[in-house]
Amino acid sequence: MNEDILIKTIARLTTAPKGILAIDESLSTCDKRFEKLGVPTTIEKRQEYRELLVTAPQIEKYISGYILFDETIKQATRSGEPFLSVLKSKGIEIGIKVDTGPVDFPEHPGEKITAGLEGLSERLKEYKALGATFAKWRSVYTIGENTPSEECMKASAEIFAKYALICQENEVVPIVEPEILMDGEHSLEKCYEATARNLEIIFSELNAQKIFLPGIILKTNMILPGKDSKVIVDALEIAKATVKCLKEKVPKEIGGITFLSGGQGDEEATVRLNAMHKLSPLPWALTFSYGRAIQNPALKAWAKNPSDVALAQALLLTAAKNNSLASVGRYEK
């Protein structure tokens, strides 16, 4: 493992005022979004939409890295230029989602762990040869009466450590993404409790396996009440709770922290990130790694009028710029 390569990649990914754009939706997730907007669920339409995202003019002013899916990393523009060539020409780091999705956690109804470790080293070597410099692995947890369980959190932490080790051995920066889902009626306090305990377990396992912490990025949820709780919490309270949790549970030496939007409204995700940067100085680089919160306006415009790519790209750029400003506390609604 070359620690210097990992540190330099993270520095490029977390340089203010930029963040990461996630366009790593699985085929099923992408098709569901297309269906909802009346877009044909074909490989050609997926390629057309992703071309719009990859070729957006000036996006590199606000975005440091793109997280791609296996299908996307091998696609090209309709003129024949590989997506990776376009991104490299913009100085954008190339990331790849490497997990294969959630599977049932045995003897724990309703809980999931994430698959994809088998053959991971070989796949990473292939992606690295294509130009990937970082990877992403996501695990999901639901807050319920008895969830997330200690057993599930520990099993997921062990998987994260194995994934991170394989990435670092291949000199690819691992993004570790534990997502406490917004689904449910839980309180903000319950989300805090579950997130804090989960981070505690994850970093305990990463340390036990001697993962090089300055060479990883944590992608995490904000501390939020469940979307069915009907409780309204202002951005400052969410920012304070989130920063407090992270300061207590995330080691200062970690390479950086990015947030997932996780079902928040587009504006909410931006305003809440902005509020965090209004607080006291933070011990780590803190930015965004949003998917839907940046893509949504562009996707809706493109679905309505696929021929007006310029409008969709302008909306994408505006959303990226807003979050770029929020990542340094300079966004104004």
UniProtKB/TrEMBL annotation:
Coiled-coil regions listed in the entry: none
Keywords, ordered alphabetically? Glycolysis, Lyase
Q: Which GO terms describe its biological process?
A: glycolytic process
- A family per Pfam: Glycolytic
What pathway does this protein act in? Carbohydrate degradation; glycolysis; D-glyceraldehyde 3-phosphate and glycerone phosphate from D-glucose: step 4/4
Please indicate which superkingdom the organism of origin belongs to. Bacteria
State the EC number(s). 4.1.2.13
Q: Which reaction does it catalyse?
A: beta-D-fructose 1,6-bisphosphate = D-glyceraldehyde 3-phosphate + dihydroxyacetone phosphate
The GO terms describing molecular function are: fructose-bisphosphate aldolase activity
What NCBIfam families does the entry give? FrucBisAld_I
The record's listing under PANTHER family reads: FRUCTOSE-BISPHOSPHATE ALDOLASE (PTHR11627)
The Swiss-Prot or TrEMBL record describes its family as follows: Belongs to the class I fructose-bisphosphate aldolase family.
Name of protein: Probable fructose-bisphosphate aldolase class 1
The record lists the organism as Candidatus Nomurabacteria bacterium RIFCSPHIGHO2_02_FULL_42_19
